[in-house]
Amino acid sequence: xxxxxxxxxxxxxxxxxxxxxxxxxxxxxxxxxxxxxxxxxxxxxxxxxxxxxxxxxxxxxxxxxxxxxxxxxx
Length: 74
Hints:
28% of the residues lie in helices and 20% in strands. It has helices at residues 16-21, 39-53, and strands spanning 28-32, 58-61, 68-73. The longest helix has 15 residues, at 39-53.
């Protein structure tokens, strides 16, 4: 089984939901909001994906008020 890696999917701008889906189940990713998306955008995308999947698969947190985002995929 190939090891998957988190990658930022960028078309003309970052596609946050598609980027979140590249995280392998059971993994946690730490990313700078400067390189990815604002915290509010990431939280919104995670909430929408969780609602669509009907379970809490993505958890989003920040240790430093949004400069760094920690995304966990259950």
